[in-house]
Design brief:
The protein is built from ten helices and eight strands. The termini are far apart. It has a single domain, classed as Rossmann fold (3-Layer(aba) Sandwich). It has an eight-stranded mixed beta sheet with strand order 1-2-4-3-5-6-7-8, sandwiched between helices.
């Protein structure tokens, strides 16, 4: 009898251990890879999050490239998964790029107060010529690419836009368009607009800077002038959207901006007709 009881105890312990083990299973979001960049002369990491249906289909998916990937990846992944499950946007492959030198990579020019700034062109070349080339080889991507970023990352997205990069759409959330005396506005001219006017760009503008009213004025003036100048030179109203978030500050505006930005650019791209 003692042996039977002992055996039952062992069985119960094994069952309980199995349940605990199952309950403590770790969840995994994304996979990190590395690439040696000849352009940047350094090894860079990038994080991929694949759509839920990826392993069960042969579909090809649009790609969203995210700057500040080390701390914007998780909420971006959740947002895209939610919107795609609700059939508001297509499933999307996320390519998040963690920072090594944020100011260097995300700024288009070198300014005296920031000696490391001005590496935006090299960073854009790295993304287009090296990173996305590798991503296209590794995963089932289609031809639609969206670039998004916040603050300096938004500045970089705007810079890529006025550089007529290979991206199809841009989401710049509360971007630092004040940079270098509104350099991006100065880059807008009729010949450029002919090449980019079909590409949608979403810009958000936060306002709740309780302790920095001058900061709000500088940011917002740059956002508005950028938008107005694009339209003045021929970009259709339907392809430029400036959205205000009066109850959000610079940091908190990022999430809501991305939510509405995704809805806007995917709608503007008319993906139901164009994406295979």
């Amino acid at each position: 009898m003692k042996q039977i009881i002992r055996g039952m105890q062992i069985s119960i312990y094994m069952i309980l251990f199995s349940v605990v083990a199952q309950e403590s299973k770790k969840l995994k979001i994304g996979t990190e890879y590395t690439i040696q960049s000849e352009i940047l002369q350094e090894k860079r990491s990038y994080i991929i999050n694949l759509p839920a249906s990826y392993d069960n289909t042969k579909n090809h998916y649009p790609v969203l490239v995210l700057s500040d990937g080390d701390y914007r990846f998780i909420y971006t992944s959740g947002l895209i998964e939610y919107l795609s499950k609700e059939n508001r946007i297509p499933e999307t492959i996320i390519v998040a790029i963690p920072n090594t030198d944020r100011t260097r990579d995300l700024t288009p020019t070198n300014l005296a107060f920031s000696s490391e700034s001005g590496g935006g062109k090299n960073f854009l070349d790295f993304i287009e010529k090296e990173l996305l080339t590798e991503v296209d080889k590794k995963f089932r991507t289609n031809s639609y690419r969206i670039l998004t970023g916040h603050s300096l990352g938004g500045l970089f997205a705007g810079y890529a836009y006025v550089s007529n990069s290979s991206f199809n759409a841009y989401i710049a959330t509360d971007p630092s368009f004040w940079w270098d005396s509104q350099l991006l506005v100065k880059k807008i001219h009729p010949d450029l607009v002919k090449n980019i006017k079909h590409k949608p760009i979403y810009i958000s503008s936060a306002d709740n800077y309780k302790n920095n009213p001058q900061g709000v004025s500088a940011m917002r003036n740059a956002h508005e002038l950028f938008s107005v100048t694009l339209k003045k030179h021929g970009v259709p109203n339907s392809n430029v959207k400036l959205e205000y978030f009066e109850d959000e500050n610079h940091g908190t505006s990022a999430y809501r901006s991305l939510y509405y930005g995704l809805l806007y650019v995917y709608d503007a791209l008319e993906l139901n007709d164009k994406i295979e």
